[in-house]
Design goal:
Shape: elongated
Mean pLDDT: 88
Helix content: 55-70%
Distance between the termini: 31 Å
Low-confidence stretches: 1-5
CATH topology of the largest domain: Regulator of G-protein Signalling 4, domain 2
Largest sheet: none
Protein name: RGS13 protein
Organism: Ciccaba nigrolineata
Domain RGS: 34-150
Pfam family, one: RGS
Structural class: mainly alpha
Order of helices and strands: HHHHHHHHH
Length: 158
């Protein structure tokens, strides 16, 4: 990713030039307390999503967020349409953004896709959440992105 197009890089350049942005040190430190705190934080989610994009695993957060939106759909017609899009983007074998779920979960979704319920992606979403929480989240906390952001805010506070 080019430094000219990386919004994360622009944040650091702006910070180095004395221009502040809205995330606080307190908020950034809370991200390390739990995965839940990070993804429910507007800036935490944005920065984590950028990290996953660089790590080439942003399909996980994209799927998780799409499932959160899917659960709020009340129209059965729209639910069917969105379920099919989720299936073709993330679930079917060789999907463009295929997620890592086990075969029984994939088969259950395939069985239910014709008459999708509000909860038909819940198990896949739970698995993806666990993958992120146990795998990419700890790497994120150790990443130079998180560490540099934290250090930058700590330096500005002193």
């Amino acid at each position: 990713m080019s430094p000219n197009t990386c919004w994360f890089c622009k944040i650091f350049r702006a910070e180095e030039n004395g221009i502040s942005f809205k995330v606080s040190l307190e908020e950034v430190l809370q991200w390390s307390q739990s995965f839940e705190k990070m993804i429910t934080s507007k800036y935490g989610l944005m920065i984590y999503k950028t990290y996953l994009k660089i790590e080439h695993s942003d399909e996980n957060i994209d799927f998780w967020l799409a499932c959160e939106a899917y659960k709020k759909i009340t129209s059965q017609r729209k639910r069917i349409s969105v379920a099919k899009k989720l299936f073709t983007s993330y679930i079917q074998p060789q999907a463009p953004n295929e997620i890592n779920i086990d075969s029984p979960v994939r088969k259950a979704i395939i069985r239910n896709i014709q008459e999708p319920t509000q909860s038909c992606f819940d198990e896949a979403q739970r698995i993806i959440y666990m993958h992120m929480e146990r795998d990419s989240y700890p790497r994120f906390l150790e990443s130079k992105f998180y560490q540099k952001l934290k250090h930058s805010l700590q330096s500005n506070g002193s």
